Give the backbone structure.
Amino acid sequence: MSGQLPNCVTSPPLWQLINWIADPLGSQDRYSQKYGDIFTVRLNSTKPYVVIGNPQAIQDIFNQDSKFDMGRGNALAEPLVGRNSLMLLDGDRHRRERKLLMPPFHGERLQTYAKQICLITEQVASQWQVGQPFVARTTMQKISLEVILQVVFGLSEGERYQQLKPLLTDWINMTDSPLRSSMLFFQFLQKDWGAWTPWGRMRRLQRQVHSLLQAEIEERRTSETEGRTDVLSLILTARDENGQAMTDEELRDELLTILFAGHETTATMLAWAFYQIHQGTDIREKLLKELDIGESSPMKIAQLPYLTAVCQETLRMYPVLPIIFPRIAKSPVKVGGYLFDAGTTLMPTIYLVHYREDLYPNAQQFKPERFLERQYSPSEYFPFGGGSRRCLGYALAQLEMKLVLATILSKYELALAEDKPVKMQRRGFTLAPTGGVRLVMTGKRYK
């Protein structure tokens, strides 16, 4: 029996694609109201994509991850992260690279990084002036970029560090609106007509970043790594089962993947967290009470239950990605009661699951308590993806989020600079707060 394509959206494919780029959450809402929690879209091509917002069907996918290719489903990201990125790999090659990259992001290594995160946060926040508004997302980007440069790349000073910082910021900011993001989705816009065109400028910035990273990798290969704790140094010494290290090209593409996956996303989540904490509810008071009587060591702070729940609820309400990595069936596969042919692309959606009223009553409300009251399964709550493709740096991202919030809230009195609701908008492949959430420091706290 041939596979079925469930609940096909009937509007023209080009119109579906425009909606997907400009309003990825609104279009999912409209389609799910009309077609249910599994439906098929065509995004300006003959190729269908099955969007899945049903937890049981998503559990079926995670349980059968070996039956899908995911790397080739992420081809759109190649111009940014390079062809050797973990995101674009499948099979044995994906397993090898993931194994080499995994150790620095987990376990006792995180304790070393925790102190660095707190120090970086204090350095950035100490520049705030009372009464002077600032954009939370921009400030959080400074912190998250510094964390990546110091913790991942092992750079905190010197000429290369000074050159990389503005280059990386400019490069990432090239897709800071739905319109500017469209060049990632339409191949005809990916033409280098010179430095004055968007794609041309992006390519030039990319080449400069590549050459600086290459120089750093070459220098690091010949220098002493003993005692160094940054991720790059640890990966340089890692070997696979055949005793092989990563090549320079592989290393460079993985560093760029960590930059894109970790810098944008963490800054966005922090901006949303500050937005919700300062909405005039009692969330800030509850957090301060926990922080003031709580622990002082960074790793103990990261285990505080209410702080953890605030971060979990932020990740639930504000998915950074509208969908997780697409899965392409390698052979016929049964998911959610449907049989899908080989070659069918399935797209699990974080957004539709995280807003299900049967799982999250009053889903439009920010209620951290829901995470203190019940446990959610990996197919009911998956802000970092799931299965074999769960985000490699999820533990570091959660640690950074908690420690940045705790460090700032403990020392500074902040308020929203504008009394108006903030909406989500596309920013490259991700979703971010429109305007970045404007805050103002009203004073300092002295415990």
About this structure: The chain has a mean pLDDT of 86. The first helix runs from residue 13 to 22.
